[in-house]
Every structure is written in C-alpha cells, then in structure tokens.
C-alpha cells in the first residue's frame, strides 16, 4: 500500500496566503473545516453502504433518473441554490430535497443495464438522509454527490439534467431523450481524488501514418488522428490544479507545446493546450526515442527545478507519460532515426534501453521513476514497442479502435493510481464551471474503497464522493479568492508512493495486457510445473541454425501447450523476439509445432496483425517477444537472424544446467517480480469477494432500479419554476 506524503516545497506560497489577514484566514479555516467535515461524513457513510450493498439490493427502491420527466417533489421551486441560467430573469429553480437523483454514463443503456450498474444505483440509495444532514457553513448552497467507477452518479438535491434542443447533437444521448451525456469519471474533481497530484506528459505521435483511416462497425471512416485528438482534448479536462502537465508532439522532430517546463493544470493552461492540439498537422515519419527524450527531459527539468526550490515547477508526486501512437517506429520501418541503433542491438532493444537510460537520469534528479501508459490506435497498429514500453516501466497498454470510447480505454491510468490511494484524505479540485448550472465552483472530494480482503489486502477503489462550493460564496468570505483557491488545493496535496505487489499490477492490466516475468540472468532455468529445463541463446541465428544449436545440446526449440508453459517461455523471450519451435507448413497451409500439433490462426498467441503477412515472403517461422504473455508470437522469415529458446527434458539436460549456482528454479518457492495471472487467483478471488456484484442485483429489473421516466420534458419545463415564462 502506498503511504501518503505531503508535497514538499509548497510552504512558501502557503505562507503568503496566511498573510492575507488573521480574521480572513480564521474564517477561511472554519469554512475549509466545515466543507471537509461534510465530505468525510458522506465518505464514511458511502463506504459503509458499499460494505452492506447486498442488503441494499434486496430492499432496493427505484431511483429518479435526472434525464427523466417525472420528478414529484422537484416540481417545487427553491432559491437555495440560486437561479438556473436558462430560466432568464426568473428566480429559483425546481429541486427535490427529499431524494437524490442518478445519472448513468453514456455507455449505459437504461433499458438493459448491467448488474453492476443496478448494484451501484441501489447501494447508495440510502444516502439521502446523510446528504440532507451534511451541511457546510453556507448551509445548502451546492451539490453533494457520490460517483462510482462504473459511471453511476447520485447527486443531491435532486435536479433535472439538461436535455433536448438545449444540447448539441454530438453531446446528446438519444436513448435518454437527447439528455446531455455526462460521465463523472472524467470530471476534474473525480480524477483529482482518484489519481492525486502528478506530473504528466502526453507524448503524441503526429507522424503521417496517424492520418490512416479506420472503419467503425457502421463502416464510417475516421482517421486515427481524429480519434486521438478527441481523446486528448477530453483528457486535458480531467486534470486538476494539483497536476503539472505538458504535451509533446513528435514525428521526425519533437516539440513541446510549451517549451522547457510543466504547466499547472489551471483552466487557462488547459484551454491553451487544447488550442495548440487543434493546430497540429500530422506529417513525416515517427521517431519514438526522439519523443521520449523530450518527454523525459521535461520531467527531469521539473524535478531539478523543484529540488532547487523553484515554485510551481512540479507536484513532486507521480510521474506519468501517456504515449499515444499507431505503433510504428523509425527503427522498425527502416526510415532515418535521430539515434543510430548500437551495433549488436536490435531496434526494439535500442528504444527500450534508451528509455531505461532516461529513467536513471530522472532518478538522479531526485525523482521517482515514470510510469508509461501506452495506447495503440487502429486495427493494424503495431503494438510491439508500445507494449514493451509499458511492461518495462510499470505501466499498462491498451488498444483503441474507432468505435471505442477512447477516454474510457485511457481510464486505466487513473484506475492504476487510484488503487493505491486508500489512505488519501480530502483533496480540492481546480476551479471549473459546474455542469449543472451553479457557475464556477471548486470541489472537495475524497476516494472511497471496498473493505479489506480476506487475505488482509487493502480494498479496491469504488468511487469518489464530492461536495461543491460556489466561488461567489468563497469571494464573500475572502475577496482574494484566487489566492484562497490555491491554498485549498495545496491543503489537499498528498503524494502516494506507489508500490504494487506482483499480482496487483497484473490484475490491473488484465488478461490481454499482462506482462511476462522478469527473470535474472542465468545459464539455465527449470520450470517445475512443466518439468522442463530451458536455456536462452542470445546469438543471432537463422531458425535452422538455432534449431541445430538446441539439438546439439540434446534439446529442441521451445514449445508449449498450456498457459503456464506459455508464461515461462514468454519470460525467457528477448524484446525483439526469439525463435520457438513453431513453423508454417506450406503444403498444408497450417502452423505446426515440431510434434505436428496444429496451432489455430485464432489462437491468442498471435500478435493482432501477425497473420496478415504476405505468403510470398519465403519460409515462415514463429518468433516470440516480450510484449506480453498473449498475442506475442509473430511470423518471421526463417532466414532472419534472431535469438532463440531451447527446452530439455530432465533426462537430457545439458551440462550448463547441472550447476545449481547457475540455475534458476521457477517453482513454489520462486519469488516473482511480475506474477503470471494464473498464480494470482487467490488474490483475485479475495478481491472479488469484497467487490463482487450483490447476488440480488443480478435479478433486479430495470423498473426496480430506475423509476418510470415519465413524459418527455424540455430543460425549461424540468428546471424552471412553474410561474416562469419562457
């Protein structure tokens, strides 16, 4: 479990704020304490509600959906939360102080909801009493809410969401009467609480290949750059003022959108970065190392400035590189690169090794290492280097296709950081415009987690509770509210030293993105479950020569017929790929192991685009690399030089395997650095035991969960008081 630690180097700006004046500071402290007390109370009751969700599902009563037209008590007019802008000069708006309303994510079909969504709606149905009793010193002047990791949001007091003609077509959800799409997981308050302070560089491939169009399920063509640009501009909106960010675009050149520094994640800086992204025109060839060099230099420079005492230079917390590409690099496509590949080094190794050099520079600057999250865009995206980058740098890889919600797929990085924030307290977001009409607000928020597992591990991230404060109210207490906002944000900064167990990280990656074990160098390896010995041959040989080398020692090129063997062979593979005992039978048109067993073209061993090679490329043999333990075998011309993996039965072990000092045993006593998911079942089951969907939720109907939506209403009819004239 990561341990919270306060951000250092922030006392100077905080001291300036304290000089605002004794009375003002005292009033502000009272206000901060009252708001944080509200958030802590809601978080405590929400955590208890999650622990008791099975009973809540059994007794579930339907909840009002904010996109509906039937609102009961919300037909009453209230002035506590001010006026709705669209109601013109009319005072007040329709609110329901007797119950909270729910919103569901754009991915949810309310007529066919998944059991986990129903469970989330029912679990927090009983928080209405808590919401009503939890008041800050302003009384009821803003929203309180809880949002879950599957996109369900419950907000109090109940209020209608924007819909119909008041919503742009691209933001309208047709399934909900053109109600405005809303996903709480990508709001500043949610990401601030779930991921905490961080330094982030978005590293974006802007080479010409990003203009490649991909077809969606409806046949519509969209370029990879359009999908990526949409994801980037939306992602920028999730950063808080405790984050430091920049964006690097690269092709044959690399350019930081703002040179030489990271920017505080303020509204103004984010708007500036969005404008810069809109002006980018993809062109040229990609050079991964060039882009990575500039991304790391920004992080290194920020760390050095922080150590020198420069204010507003770095969060001094998590370091993240979000790498967005369609996967091809100059080293693998044969185009000129800024750095020559060292002699005796494969192109893939050259990139991975260069990143490790930059990681060491970052550590020497007084920083922790950077986590790399890589995303491959498009059906034919080459995932080899992006996957290996993520595996080698404690990150996660994902593929994004035209019909995917890119933000949802990129959400892995916040889930990754959220999983270690169990000890985090209240954190304050940057100022932003409220999506529900309150104007400019700042939010106090806190993550909530499931109970500890049966194995004593910390619980999983469930969601975030929040409470808003309107900036107009803050200004009434302290006119110097811009300085005050900065103080609030500083108060919430808590850095987490992210330390994952081998299973925790693999469970976050999932089956398709899990990474292979990292084995120490040895002359020989024994894998107990298969009762086999293995050696790695780093000499670059053709397939036939590699097979002969294995045979001369009494063995053969490695094969596997179950997931456990696949895991160990993947761990022995080189970054660029190693020969294994799988060959294409040209006469039969099939891939076969040396014992004649056929491997289906639909097998999960093949990389996503591996079998699309032309058949006239000569004799084809199989090479396995370290991009994962699935989808990491690809065809290669058998004459190409490559490293290889040999296997031996216990009766034919070579001499190099007889010396125990030069042998690594992968058995029940082996201490994994990166555990295979197959060995994580007990951890996974114990975690599922405290996060699993309530049995009763499986049988709930949609009508039991969401109250009747009623007749359609315009936003004006749903929000504005009855005596208000349009």
TrEMBL record:
All copies of domain C-type lectin, residue ranges: 520-647
GO molecular function: voltage-gated calcium channel activity
Gene3D superfamilies membership: Mannose-Binding Protein A, subunit A, von Willebrand factor, type A domain
Pfam families cross-referenced by the UniProt entry: Lectin_C, VWA_2
UniProt keywords, alphabetically: Signal
Signal peptide (residue range): 1-25
Domain VWFA stretches: 199-431
Any Gene Ontology CC annotation: voltage-gated calcium channel complex
PROSITE patterns listed in its UniProt record: C_TYPE_LECTIN_2, VWFA
InterPro entries: C-type_lectin-like, C-type_lectin-like/link_sf, Ca_channel_alpha-2/delta, CTDL_fold, VWF_A, vWFA_dom_sf
Protein name: C-type lectin
């Amino acid at each position: 479990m990561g341990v919270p630690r306060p951000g250092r180097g922030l006392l100077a700006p905080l001291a300036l704020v304290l000089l605002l004046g004794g009375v003002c500071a005292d009033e502000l402290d009272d206000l901060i304490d009252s708001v944080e007390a509200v958030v802590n109370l809601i978080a405590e009751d929400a955590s208890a509600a999650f622990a008791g969700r099975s009973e809540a599902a059994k007794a579930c009563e339907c909840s009002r959906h904010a996109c509906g037209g039937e609102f009961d008590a919300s037909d009453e007019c209230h002035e506590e939360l001010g006026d709705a802008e669209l109601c013109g000069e009319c005072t007040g708006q329709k609110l329901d102080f007797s119950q909270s309303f729910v919103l569901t994510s754009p991915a949810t079909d309310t007529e066919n909801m998944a059991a986990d969504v129903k469970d989330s709606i029912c679990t927090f149905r009983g928080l209405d009493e808590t919401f009503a009793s939890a008041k800050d010193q302003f009384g009821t002047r803003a929203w309180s809410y809880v949002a879950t990791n599957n996109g369900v949001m419950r907000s109090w007091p109940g209020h209608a969401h924007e819909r119909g003609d008041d919503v742009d077509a691209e933001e309208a959800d047709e399934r909900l009467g053109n109600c405005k799409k809303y996903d709480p997981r990508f709001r500043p308050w949610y990401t601030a609480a779930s991921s905490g302070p961080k330094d982030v560089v978005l590293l974006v491939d802007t080479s010409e290949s990003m203009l490649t169009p991909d077809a969606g399920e409806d046949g519509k063509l969209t370029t990879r750059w359009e999908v990526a640009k949409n994801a980037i501009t939306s992602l920028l909106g999730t950063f808080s003022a405790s984050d430091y960010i920049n964006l690097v675009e690269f092709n044959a050149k690399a350019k930081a959108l703002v040179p030489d520094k990271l920017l505080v994640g303020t509204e103004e800086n984010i708007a500036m970065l969005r404008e810069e992204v809109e002006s980018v025109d993809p062109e040229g060839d990609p050079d991964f190392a060039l882009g990575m060099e500039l991304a790391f230099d920004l992080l290194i420079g920020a760390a050095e400035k922080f150590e020198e005492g420069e204010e507003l230079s770095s969060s001094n917390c998590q370091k993240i590189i979000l790498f967005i590409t369609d996967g091809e690099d100059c080293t693998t496509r044969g185009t000129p690169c800024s750095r020559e590949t060292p002699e005796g080094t494969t192109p893939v190794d050259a990139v991975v090794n260069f990143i490790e050099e930059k990681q060491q520079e970052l550590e020497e600057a007084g920083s922790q290492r950077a986590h790399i999250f890589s995303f491959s865009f498009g059906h034919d995206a080459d995932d080899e280097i992006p996957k290996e980058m993520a595996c080698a740098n404690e990150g996660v890889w994902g593929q994004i296709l035209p019909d995917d919600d890119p933000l949802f797929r990129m959400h892995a990085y916040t889930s990754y950081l959220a999983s270690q924030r169990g000890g985090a307290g209240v954190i304050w977001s940057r100022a932003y415009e409220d999506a529900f009409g309150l104007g400019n607000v700042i939010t106090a928020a806190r993550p909530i987690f499931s109970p500890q597992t049966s194995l004593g591990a910390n619980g999983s991230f469930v969601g975030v509770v929040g409470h808003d404060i309107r900036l107009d109210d803050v200004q009434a207490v302290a006119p110097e509210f811009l300085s005050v906002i900065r103080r609030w944000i500083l108060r919430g900064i808590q850095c987490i030293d992210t330390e994952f167990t081998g299973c925790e990280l693999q469970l976050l990656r999932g089956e398709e993105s899990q990474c292979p074990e990292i084995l120490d160098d040895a002359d020989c390896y024994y894998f107990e479950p298969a009762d086999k010995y293995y050696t790695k041959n780093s000499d670059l040989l053709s397939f036939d020569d590699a097979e002969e080398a294995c045979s001369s020692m009494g063995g053969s090129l490695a094969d596997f017929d179950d997931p456990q063997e696949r895991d160990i062979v993947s761990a022995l593979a080189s970054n660029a790929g190693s020969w294994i005992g799988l060959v294409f039978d040209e006469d039969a048109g099939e891939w076969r192991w040396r014992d004649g067993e056929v491997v289906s073209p639909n097998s999960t061993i093949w990389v996503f685009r591996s079998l699309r090679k032309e058949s006239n490329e000569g004799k084809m043999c199989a090479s396995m690399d370290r991009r994962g333990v699935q989808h990491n075998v690809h065809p290669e011309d058998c004459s190409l030089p490559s490293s290889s993996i040999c296997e031996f039965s216990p009766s034919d072990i070579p001499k190099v395997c007889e010396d125990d000092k030069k042998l690594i045993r992968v058995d029940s006593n082996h201490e994994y650095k990166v555990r295979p998911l197959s060995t994580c079942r007990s951890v996974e089951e114990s975690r599922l035991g405290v996060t699993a969907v309530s049995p009763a939720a499986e049988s709930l109907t949609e009508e039991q969960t969401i109250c009747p939506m009623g007749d359609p209403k315009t936003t004006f009819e749903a929000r504005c008081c009855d005596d208000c004239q349009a």
